[in-house]
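2024-03-11 09:14:02 INFO receiving multi-entity request
2024-03-11 09:14:02 INFO entity count = two
2024-03-11 09:14:03 INFO echoing inputs for audit
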Amino acid sequence: MNAFQILALGILLCLFIVTILAIARGIVSRRDGILWALLWLAAGIAMAFPELTVAAARRLGIGRGADLILYCAVVVMMTGFLMVYSRLRRLQREVTLLARHIAITEALDTAAHPGKSSSDVDKPGAGNEA
Amino acid sequence: MTDSPSPSNDSLPAEVIARTFVVMPAFNESACIAQVSAKVRALYPNVVVVDDGSTDDTFAAARDSATYVLRHPVNRGQGAALQTGIMFALARGAEYIVSFDSDGQHEVDDIAALVAPIHAGTCDVSLGSRFLGETFEMPLSRRMLLRLAVLFTRAVSRVRVTDTHNGLRAFSRPAAEQMNITLDRMAHASELLDQIRQNRLEYREVPVRVRYTDYSLAKGQSARGAIRILIHYIFGRMIR
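2024-03-11 09:21:47 INFO inference complete, emitting structure
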């Protein structure tokens, strides 16, 4: 085992322990925590026994184990990107609905209360005269 | 903004005018919002300005001329502002809802022509078209860009219109109740046409005049903006 492997395995072990502790203390959900723990475990196995990834790569028709890892990483990252993007869109949607709700409930009716919105009192920014 | 003969709404009965709400989304339009909304309000008593989180004093500028002024606390885009205005108008009992750009490119005169066919029951939605009407000083590049947008819309939304991105439109109350604009930014124009088709609404195009001033051109879309809108629209259809 070379120095790099020892270092990387040490870091992965730390991450694994932190993840287990996080699950135990309820900082992450059980499902997410187990997924992360499995990821660290898989990375550790690939680090400790590189010949395993080579064998798996050969079986899939890819030359080197490192290439297999790279391809997997790309797929995982793209999936993650899409998930983050769709969550972002959902968040934007929710912000719009909130903004709309505020706009409608605080609408200024110039005919009913000339120059004064019903909520001007409790809304500091609303009184800014031009 | 000098005017051709003074605008009128003579062709509409008074009770229709009383129940017509003109919605004007406005983002950083303090320079002209007061003037434009005052012109509209001179003929239509219900003018709803939706200040879309402007960073200038659009809100203050609109409060003296518009009937209702709404404000998004943060900028959400023209589509979002339009939907907000439509929902507000519906809550206030609107029977006819008109969308009107706040940069002064539309003619107040044309509102009556849009509302009339809805009042007559010939359609649920009327869409202003600058290509059926007369247009003042439209630059060639703008004309080409809009033509491309029309071809794209015909292919994707399968709605045959001559002008897809005109801000001047009118909806009957039932049609407005079915509209739900979810694309917050400029791609809402295409989404709107999609919903017209999906809800099987009767629509008709009405020739309107569009005035191209330096101001409205600066606020309008460039070719680069158009590509951004296209991307938003495609992503909006792909990822819900």
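2024-03-11 09:21:48 INFO post-check: Chain B has a mean pLDDT of 85.
2024-03-11 09:21:48 INFO post-check: Residues 112 and 165 of chain B are 20 Å apart (CA to CA).
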